[in-house]
Amino acid sequence: MSTEDAWFIAERLREILQSRHFNKDDFEGRPLKLSQAFCLLWQNKENGEVSGRQRSGRIANAAVLAVLLDLFALGKIEFEAQVKQWIALGRRREITYVKVIDPSPTGTFLDKALFSGILYNYSNTPDKPKTLEEWILQGSYLNPTCATQVLDSLVEAKIFGKTSVLFWKKYPTINPEPEAKLVKELRSIALQGQVADGYMWTLIKLLSDADTSLFGKRDLLSQHFSNEEFPRAKSCFTSLTFIESESRIDARQLQVAQELQVVNDQSKKGGVEEVAAVGPSCSPQEVNVVIKKEEQKKSF
């Protein structure tokens, strides 16, 4: 189930980066990193619990993805998509790799949370980057977990406290102001029609995707609205974070075009068992084709 959750969250990254709402420049100047904002709204404000932080699951995986997006916004990493296709098996899969583009540490909690591990892997095997799913799983299984490191950064900032109750740790709120500002903006978007910038849209998207794993239990978003308000807010968030139909159509059209081109190439060459799907203005390179956004290929 944990691997399935990692795949689910990895697919959400592709949706985020392809959305017209995403703009990493909007992350700059925010007092909290995206991952901190996610964990701030994850915390149960009534009892200080952060349920699920110590195990791999959709919510913890979303927290890891928030850290990766913080690193992406800082220009430390990039996401590189490769499409593999096996004609004989009728299989096609897009694999996203996490690549280092600036190996200098961030000097923030993001290093302990995940970036130090990424840099270690980069220094030892620079030509063999790990996949997005691998880093999502690793971040959820670290000790302490990626989410715990982010929560500890909020403790360091004196926004949360940290107490131990038997085998559990709680993070009661010490300074409510950062959360109050975040919730005010969240409510304005949901109830008053305020336009969400790229930072808030991404935060809402991650929280909404994490909520889909709770099956009617306490939603991460619902605790910030009254029972009367939440149906309206949820409808707004669903509409806002639904990945635009044109993106899905474009992706499907690209897939169809790629499959047709592969079949044509196969017929010309007399049949190839494993080939790469080729995007616009690409040329095949053995099995994989790296897709760059600037060249109208599929990468970020």
From TrEMBL:
Keywords: Golgi apparatus, Lipid-binding, Membrane
Subcellular location: Golgi apparatus membrane
Molecular function GO terms recorded: phosphatidylinositol-4-phosphate binding
Main subcellular location of this protein, as a coarse class: Golgi
Domain of life: Eukaryota
Organism expressing this protein natively: Actinia tenebrosa (Australian red waratah sea anemone)
Family indicated by similarity: Belongs to the GOLPH3/VPS74 family.
The organism's taxonomic lineage, starting at the top: Eukaryota, Metazoa, Cnidaria, Anthozoa, Hexacorallia
Membrane topology field: Peripheral membrane protein
Gene3D superfamilies: yeast vps74-n-term truncation variant domain like
Protein name per the record: Uncharacterized protein LOC116308040
Transmembrane segments: none
Pfam families membership: GPP34
GO cellular component: Golgi membrane
